[in-house]
Write a structure and sequence with these properties.
Layout lengths: L1 H4 L27 E4 H12 L3 E2 L12 E5 L14 E7 L6 H10 L2 H8 L1 E6 L9 H15 L4 E4 L2 E5 L1 H4 L5 E7 L1 H10 L3 H4 L4 E5 L15 E4 L3 H10 L4 E5 L2 E5 L7 E5 L5 H11 L4 E4 L24 E4 L3 E2 L2 E2 L3 E7 L18 E7 H4 L8 E7 L6 H7 L2 H8 L2 E5 L7 E3 L3 E3 L3 H15 L3 E11 L1 H13 L5 E5 L8 H5 L8 E8 L14 H13 L21 E7 L3 E9 L5 E12 L6 H9 L2 E3 L6 E3 L5
Parallel strand pairs: 2-7, 4-5, 4-8, 8-9, 9-10, 10-13, 20-21, 20-24, 24-25, 25-26, 26-29
Antiparallel strand pairs: 1-3, 3-5, 6-7, 11-12, 12-13, 14-15, 16-17, 18-19, 19-21, 22-23, 27-28, 28-29, 30-31
Length: 631
């Protein structure tokens, strides 16, 4: 049974650029490799194919100083590459050859970690072969720029190319750094001291090391410290704004009670470096990720490589629910399916594409039969254009939410089944409106623990369009919908007619620098597309339309029957407006987050769930039931 529960499909080849949804894969199928950076700059573009080229920021990088281990079967294809883990190791020593360098990281247990996590280990040694210094800071920033430039494009010799390092051994969500002795001193003085560098790192391990008195830590970062200098420890505690601590057998953990990822652990002495690496990775690193959601260059204008892809700072620090060997620590199993079950629903506009692949994220109590029938909510999660279903669920916060709230998730690969553009703007046709509701019905039939009265649907960008398509196909399946950053969608007369007898709670979301259909960048208020969406669903729910007044209500154009103002993750301001029907039920909502670009953000799952969880739908009468006091 355990083998069945942990099932993950093996992906064994990379797809070409014009990827089909059929036979979808998100792995590269590569063998494990250990290379110098110079070799990786050649081998990366050659293995990725297409028009990849090495990032020019690495021109002039000192040869023989940096070594790269890549695990077998790296994540790749579209945004799945962002699921790779990258661990930077700074060691103040010289290695005569690759074999010695590989032995060093193997002895630290890092190759085993990379193999389990899927990702890379980047071993960095001093440019002068002896001690880290000023030159190494510039080299580090070049390396960081190349690693974070996922799918970034540029011009080389007049030709448009895609930079390879981000796809070959980089990432941005799961970047962690380890410094040992002089390497720890380098991280303290040159990386932690630099806002644009430290704010991209999701966790640091510092074994020994010093820090110059005039240096400061520029941004909060989870840090695991071994034998720290007292003044250095106080600097990390201060920047993480710790206000509590815990003493246990592993040492002392200082943390911020409101934001527990802002944490400083001082480990007990007496362990080996490999043991410290193991503890820092499994106890700290894998529980944190960084996501770039600000405008590029906003806080990094003075940096030498400003303007390249991934040039955001700070990256947002958020909790992560890591998947290890097919399941999370809190018992969410990842089950992958590739089947012909829905092959009778083919997209005429897209060469007969159909829904063939999906992920299920299931609480263990659903799979082992201990959850009573009809007790576990289900959310259909729709990825955005170019995103990967699993990567979307992780980066938009739903995997973390599923573990905490005991929710089942299903995420289909629907990239090429959504129809075509009409007049370059509106989407029409496709089979998502049939296939995605059918996927939900399959889940309810297959897992008795799932609650048919509490089925919800959400998605971001193209996934928001898929959400609108899904509810247009069969709104009676869903108790609520939250399309985020939604684009336009043409409804048929038949799809509109279902709302003569069906109500549907819906909240649409946007942000300051979202797409034009959502936000008018000149005026700062919601665009005509969002105005139309709000009035469309007000009408479907037998509510009066809005006469928008942006002179009085600068963003929304209306007052709302209830408005909630809050700060997400202690960093971004959020406003949500609710519009009530005659019974006082908030059937339509609008959520706006200040300062964010069109991008995935882990806090969005909480926004969606805090709306959806109050609603259920009677499976027999199809009536909406609202519970204001759901916890």
């Amino acid at each position: 049974m355990k083998k069945l529960l942990c099932l993950l499909l093996a992906f064994c080849m990379m797809l070409p650029a014009s990827v089909s949804a059929l036979d979808y894969q998100n792995r590269l199928g590569n063998e494990a490799t250990f290379e110098t950076l110079e070799e990786a700059r050649v081998n990366g573009p050659a293995s990725l194919g297409g028009n990849y080229a090495s990032h020019p920021v690495l021109d002039g990088y000192p040869e023989g100083t940096t070594f790269i281990y890549r695990s077998a079967d790296m994540f790749g294809i579209r945004a799945a590459v962002r699921m790779n883990t990258s661990i930077l190791v700074f060691a103040e020593q010289h290695f005569d050859d690759k074999a010695a360098a590989e032995s060093y990281i193997r002895d630290l247990g890092l190759i085993d970690i990379a193999d389990q996590a899927t990702g890379s280990i980047i071993l960095v040694t001093p440019a002068n072969g002896e001690t880290f210094g000023d030159a190494d800071q510039k080299n580090y920033y070049a390396l960081q720029t190349a690693m974070c430039a996922l799918n970034a494009r540029g011009m080389i010799d007049g030709e448009s190319v895609t930079f390879a390092e981000g796809a070959y051994f980089g990432s941005f969500a799961y970047i962690y750094a380890i410094g040992i002795d002089g390497g720890a001193t380098f991280l303290n003085n040159y990386v932690a001291n630099t806002f644009d560098s430290v704010s991209r790192i999701a966790g640091m391990l510092l074994i020994g090391g010093k820090m110059d008195e005039i240096r400061k830590v520029a941004h909060f970062v989870p840090v695991y410290m071994v034998n720290p200098d007292e003044e250095v420890l106080e600097k990390y505690k201060a920047v993480n704004a710790v206000d509590a601590y815990e003493v246990n057998n592993n040492g002392i953990a200082y943390y911020n009670q409101a934001l527990p990822l802002q944490k400083v652990v001082v480990a007990e002495e007496g362990k080996t470096n490999a043991e410290y690496v193991h503890d820092a990775y499994y106890d700290m690193f894998i529980h944190a990720m960084r996501i770039p959601v600000l405008k590029a260059g906003l806080n990094s204008a003075e940096t030498p490589y400003q303007g390249y892809g991934g040039d955001q700072a700070p990256y947002s620090l958020n909790p992560r629910n890591p998947v290890i060997d097919g399941k999370t620590e809190d018992g969410i199993y990842v089950v992958a399916h590739k089947e012909e079950r829905f092959s009778d629903m083919k997209s005429a506009e897209n060469d007969g594409e159909y829904l063939q692949f999906w992920y299920e994220f299931l609480p263990e109590e659903v799979l082992d039969g201990t959850a009573p029938d009809h007790t576990i909510p289900l959310i259909l999660c729709n990825h955005g254009g170019g995103d990967d279903p699993w990567q979307f669920v992780d980066e938009n916060g739903y995997l973390e939410l599923a573990g905490k709230e005991r929710i089942a998730l299903v995420a289909g690969e629907h990239q090429n089944i959504g129809g075509v553009r009409v007049s370059g703007q509106l989407f029409s046709g496709g089979v998502r409106h049939d296939a995605l509701p059918a996927l939900v019905e399959y889940m309810l039939e297959t897992y008795p623990a799932l609650d048919p009265s509490r089925v919800y649907v959400t998605g971001y960008s193209m996934g928001a369009g898929a959400t609108i398509s899904t509810i247009s196909g069969n709104s009676s399946l869903f108790a609520a919908a939250v399309p985020m950053a939604v684009g336009p969608y043409i409804m048929t007369d038949e799809q509109i007619a279902q709302y003569d007898t069906i109500d549907l709670p819906i909240m649409i979301t946007t942000s300051t620098y979202d797409m034009a259909i959502a936000i008018d960048q000149e005026t700062g208020h919601i665009s005509e597309g969002y105005q139309e969406y709000l009035n469309r669903y007000l009408g479907f729910n037998e509510m009066d339309p809005i006469t928008f007044d942006f002179d009085t209500y600068k963003i929304s154009g209306f007052r709302g029957d209830r408005c909630v103002y809050k700060t997400l993750n202690n960093e971004y301001y959020n406003i949500t407006w609710y519009l009530n029907n005659k019974d006082g039920v908030p059937m339509v909502g609008l959520s706006y987050t200040q300062g964010l670009i069109h991008a995935l953000y882990p806090q969005y799952a909480g926004i969606a769930w805090n709306y959806m969880k109050h609603f259920s739908r009677d499976p027999e009468t199809k009536a909406i039931i609202y519970d204001e006091f759901v916890d």
